[in-house]
């Protein structure tokens, strides 16, 4: 939230783009019609009606009280008595309407709250998914916004609660306004001191609430750490490691520490100071200023019983213009998701928002969509990295530094190098998750930045090192390789067979429909190697639908020796006609490639076939011998 506060003062979104500056409640009010214009309109009408009933009730009580003295001795069948009965009847009707309004308003606001929660999630998801590149999503500021938009800030309440509380707040405020108006029955000046005193007091306390809300949200980096540690303990993914390494107590302790640090400012209660006491004194003085002359006028008979009763109720009613404690607190804390969602919804909008750079001026190519290269967009000749320089935003040193690399179309290239050499980064740049800071990447001479990222990506099928294990059906896991295409049973079966995933599917209780997670009914967990085959099948399904560049980042990492050997046997079949990039530390895998590049210091240090590189006796040859010696040693042991 500190990021938000800074962004507010600079007129920029914490998420990067320019957005309107909106306090939580204002942002919430703007979102409501988006959630449902019909329900918002209906709710506004109900709230206005409800607000009108409050002064009507006050007046009806006054009218009844005013008729009671005349009817006291005359009996109910007298004209005065009938007047009392009529006044009572009207009062009862207004009261009944007042009582009935509550459930109607509650029902309408609950329906609107449901819609709003969906709208906030939709805006957040769309905004987060919009940037074509990954850069706009990196960093703690977006992480803070995401947490707030999901209602996971500390002490934050579900956004729907703001909608259910808001009508009550508005009704109470309007009742305060009408109470102030009724005081005009006594004197034109009577509302002024009470309204001023309550409004000043209310604003003061409201500011203090906002400060507390802002300060607690400002610590979200620490609170996110706490949240992360808690989720590690409570969610299944880390259960094995936590037990094996005995991390349980460490997690509990560090969670507690992060939580307490993060919430310290929130926990610190505000003490009453001189300003508070002055406000209180002003409030007492304002009441005295009105009540004393009101009582005197009533005692002198200058004010009728009915008017006196109405005015006394009205004096008490003006308190609704002041601080409404829990109600305001609830709304402020629940509405915090609204500005965060609005800011996230702006992600990726405007120049540079995609996180990808436009084509440099003078490059000779238009920045708009260009005619796709031959073979439906896949390279017919080569993909080239030309003097590519790239640095991650939070890093000082470049990860790639004047990297020159050629991948001839239809051939396979292996990237090797030490941990952190930049192999995966090369893949990310090729998939345009990031763009180079300098240099360019071309496909048959066309700069990738001249191609719409989405259509370029259709030509690429990737099995990332940390590929996703979707907790969905096996079919969906594979179909996601070409999600826009109509599901094609033959293509699915062919991709599964080529990836060696058919045996995995045969073993599933419900075949293709089995959810690959025990968290879902009928679901099951599968092994790391089996997941790798499913991920490979996903990439091959993309190939079945036209992708011509296949990227395999550590394709054999989870495979057993037999499965690895099988992959080698099938390698030519799997990659035939494709431009293939292999990233691996396993030289047995690497040597299958037509050419091998050894990355070091952000550029290509050695390049050639396996035999050429061995003959050169450089880093590749030394790494290969080391691995071979280790494996031989293991075999002899
Ligand atoms: N999102 C990121 N933000 C900041 N730095 C990153 C990010 N991703 C990678 N890096 C850094 O960039 C460098 C290259 O990482 P990369 O993942 O490309 O290496 P790699 O050669 O694939 O490594 P490995 O063999 O360990 O998989 C590393 O120093 C890494 O810490």
From TrEMBL:
Broad class of the protein's primary localization: membrane
Keywords of the record: ATP-binding, Cell membrane, Membrane, Nucleotide-binding, Transmembrane, Transmembrane helix, Transport
Organism superkingdom: Bacteria
Gene Ontology cellular component annotations, sorted alphabetically: plasma membrane
Domain ABC transporter: 383-626
Classification via PROSITE patterns: ABC_TRANSPORTER_1, ABC_TRANSPORTER_2
Topology within the bilayer: Multi-pass membrane protein
Protein localization: Cell membrane
Transmembrane regions listed in the UniProt entry: 39-64, 84-105, 157-176, 182-201, 277-299
Entry's Gene Ontology molecular function annotations: ABC-type oligopeptide transporter activity; ATP binding; ATP hydrolysis activity
Family matches, as Pfam families: ABC_tran
Family label: Belongs to the ABC transporter superfamily. Lipid exporter (TC 3.A.1.106) family.
This protein's name: ABC transporter ATP-binding protein
